[in-house]
Amino acid sequence: MKTAIVTDSNSGITQSEAKELGITVVPTPVLIDGELFLEDLTLTQEQFYEKLKSDVSVSTSQPNPIDVCEAWDEALKTHDYVIHIPLSSGLSETGHTLQGFAEGEERFKGKVFVVQNQRVSITQRQSVMDALKLASEGKSGEEIAEWLMQTKMVASIYIMVDTLKYLKKGGRLTPAVAAIGTLLKIKPVLQIQGFKLDQYAKVRKLVDAKTTMINALKKDFEKRFSKERAEGKMVIAIAHTQNYDEALKFKAELNEAFPDLEVVSIDPLSLSVSCHIGPGALACACMIKY
What we know:
The chain is of the alpha/beta class. Helix content is 42%, strand content 23%. It contains twelve helices and 13 strands. A six-stranded mixed sheet has the order 10-9-8-13-11-12, sandwiched between helices.
């Protein structure tokens, strides 16, 4: 029994990594002043941030469902099942769209499972790794999908935003609030608990932002995920937007705060999130690991 794993580039998994892992990563379309680019194919992270810093209109879109269906067809030539792990439905309609194809097309029924487990970026990446391990044990598509859905909310993401410029640009802040925040050098800490970006705290210094995020994880481990931590099932990951050196320092601080937990990765945040928060961001996440 063989199961193929498909995801999108919002997971942070590059095309070269996908080849090494033996999975398919569908590139996220990025619209820049109306021109279409494909993440990690016709647009690099560096090119994206260069364009984002200028006064252009930048947004991300859904992958073409026809391209995704073609990827499923190709996978089913050599596999019995396909697990597709899309970006959280709180940030995109992609999952709902693909669910319709998986359930509506006769050739996909009972073979393709679109797992809408509300993951994004580093938590989405972990879902892919979990699915791969489950598949290596010979689990069916249905069994893998069931585990991923049962554990979907055993994850938290916290993000420190370096500038309010992009939140303002995306309409998530009023110009007045953004102006005051910029003047006071406020660095908001945001959270993703499965669905949308929400405000968690306001700080003024990077050191305070990191302390806030570490304390937020401690609270999660004490109240929400104490059982999973005690069982050795929780891991931590770090993400950033053009802030790798600071992410490395943050890893050392997280290792000190949580010596019993593995920091499994340090990755760039997906462009679907990055276009709203801009460069200089730092994030951490905790999630269950199969």
